[in-house]
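Exercise: predict the structure of this protein bound to zinc ion.
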Amino acid sequence: MISCKEATRLASIQLERKLSLWERIEFRVHLAFCTGCRRAEKQFLFMRQAMGAWMSRHD
Ligand SMILES: [Zn+2]
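Solution:
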């Protein structure tokens, strides 16, 4: 299984590009077992949404 460090890296990559199928599987499997990374991913997604909302108000 991938490490938390690797999972965090994939979480940030997925904000910039689509993950490959294998990356997605590794990431999902890690999240299924790791509460810490699940929580971190939620924050990532929330930050991206917040950022998106901010950007759309400011361009
Ligand atoms: Zn983890």
